[in-house]
């Protein structure tokens, strides 16, 4: 139809304005236009006027803060600060909106281009056309686009009916929380490409989906009580989602479960509305996005994954949800070369260097190296260990930066697929840096996971020779699958707890999520730990309320148990201590050894030296004119090192002390409250006070480290304890020459400077022996002769010689530190001298420590700088010395928490008493009887024994024997019963029980009750602690009865093993008992012996 230029377009040619109703005829506008000259303004003019007024009102609102600041009298700085925040928020907001617009435009362009070119006007593609590995999935995008509106309806219903009530119930302040708008928008997520990985495993299908979501989603929430509105309007999310279909089964639906996760952290950008607009303020914007990404990473980024089971009763769900790593990569970040210079001086006229450091990333695992100041060819020499979960897919990424006070400059990056490391086993190469200049030198080692402990010693031996900092190399990994708990105790007021779990190995602690309002929580989480030496490490588990203040249960598990378990795996219930009687935890623990299986590995010639491989071959060559002095591989202590002895001082008793206490102005004569002071070699000791006694018995033992310097004396003083000033009761001196020469002294010493009094002392020299063969015997002897008033007796002497350190970190400005070192074992420490301004100090100092439990104690070394703080540390478990040759380690040790290393010698000596009968046990059993016959005078009469030696002479020879009789039907109890004449006490030690009877479904909670017959009162009754749910409890508890020997021989010892019947009942179940006639037992021997438990009709309460 022809139309003149002046005619109006029809409704088909021009869309209607938003303000017009859709059914208005097009002539309406014409009529309004023809009469516009004389008619009042229409709706369009009113809208324009309203828009002008709104804009003017907004500008007035901007001036309100300025007016308020002036009215209150605030500084102009507050206004400027607020203005800066507003401008920053506006800039971030505009950038996000512009980014969303650009992304949507690119998405629309891609759709139009695909429609024009990919489908070739709906013609079929030729047969010879092939696709790359990453394929388009437009058919899948069409399905997603079709489903997207219905998914929006489901999400709206889910948020309104499920999420909103849960939020309202979580906090009383959120009771008016509601979703006011839920729209997923018209833009669905797009799958840019799909890649299928063939040939991985027969029972799984592996897909990688490249997902891009540029959505116009809008979700608004409101808390009406506080007039608070917030929401999201627009979002971008891009990443590679891996989908694993496994296991494939022979029944419908063919696939047992679907696992989904992002291989790397996806990129995220969110456009906030309402109150959450504040999150677009500079600084908060990146922080909020990072927090959200951390939440997504904790749920959907490796090693975390979403598992959707498709069939009921699926086996190994925990293994599918958190599978074992494919392997471990040990990354040696060695050096870099040819880096670009970023530091400029005098406004760029003078070119400096750079202060480089490196960031190493594999998935969510990130490590940062130390900064090397003013160097374009830095040498880091650092080692990191990362877990690899997916091959192919994960990448090793190294980024190098120049450290600056404001913003660090980027120097370059490199990326490498972990699959190449798996194929090579060991890679030692220089990798070029992309987006920059220079190279980075890496040594990459693939460590396989072994399910048995056969090669543990080989792995540990190799690790001792590996130079690794800042952390020592690992020998194994531990994966803990935390499943659930049962019957946890309630909080006060019978309230349900909110349980969470803390798992710790040494100084590494990980926490589970909290499960609210239940005493039977289900966590289904996995935790991973690196282990340096699984033989000596322990897993500590603490079940706590989410406030961390209330402990609901605890468990300590030695990891050595896993070394003997099938496939290094424990999958069972664990009984919790310090908890309810039925509280237990279900966990699956899997250990795997880290084994480097490659013919390219070269073992270092000297364990403990720096890297066995010379990376740059730039050091001086042998025979050259610039040869550096050789670095010592062992220490060179002086001849007096390790020659110390231990003097054991036994303060027994005193007699005829003078009375110092007076009453009623001296008219009434009292007694004294004596105690003893000992002084030797700069150390002093003090005994306990015995009240109102002129013939006191202390029976206390003190130990001091002594040298062979002649002329040493032990000074002894006795005082009477008073409220004001203690009264002097006498003194004496003992020359150590006799004790050090003969090894033993037992004398009554007359007190000097007083009218009367004498003191009974026993002194013994203990010479350290470099063998661990007698350690267990020494520990057992110490437990028997240990008095309740004394500290625990030492079993060994540790001598440490600290010679020097090297490669300590420099202070700021490349100045060397002024280092000193502290050596500590328990509460005893030694501080070296401070060496001024050097990174390679030479100390040449030694220290000695008394060791009471060599299996559990460790030497702690701290290297610190004067005024600069910690430079490095070392923790050396003494258990490593027990397995070393001559109980000695002498080499370089790498420091943790720093780049340095120290050269020291640590040697252990076992303290064997010459008067405890250990020598008799060190030979064969056939010699024990001859040992007795050589000292007949000591065994003439039992009541006249004064030395502990004969009492213990044959004690150890009657301990556990390979020819022990099997346990009876009710089990056995292991006891030591002997008479300690020095204290005039009958001593009983309950060691353990074995093969106890189990009457019910659960194992018993056994304890041991001891009673001296014929008395049945509480004065002679003793009771051990209670062990939870075990048929083989370990007690090792000591009990004493003070009585003369002749009375002890008239008694019978009744030993009963019992179990608690229920938590609330006082009834006790008798598991078995044995009655010992002490007159028929040789109380002088103190032998540990197994006794069969017998039945008894009396099963009353204890």
From TrEMBL:
Domain named SMP-LTD: residues: 133-311
Keyword Phosphoprotein: yes
Domain C2, first and last residues per copy: 310-431, 452-578, 626-749, 775-897, 969-1091
Annotated TM spans: 66-89, 243-263
A GO biological process held by the record: endoplasmic reticulum-plasma membrane tethering
Cellular localisation: Cell membrane; Endoplasmic reticulum membrane
Subunit relationships: Interacts with ESYT2 and ESYT3. Interacts with ADGRD1; inhibiting the G-protein-coupled receptor activity of ADGRD1. Interaction with ADGRD1 is abolished when cytosolic calcium increases, relieving ADGRD1 G-protein-coupled receptor activity. Interacts (phosphorylated form) with SLC2A4.
Similarity remark: Belongs to the extended synaptotagmin family.
The name this protein goes by in its record: Extended synaptotagmin-1
Species for this entry: Balaenoptera musculus
Gene: ESYT1
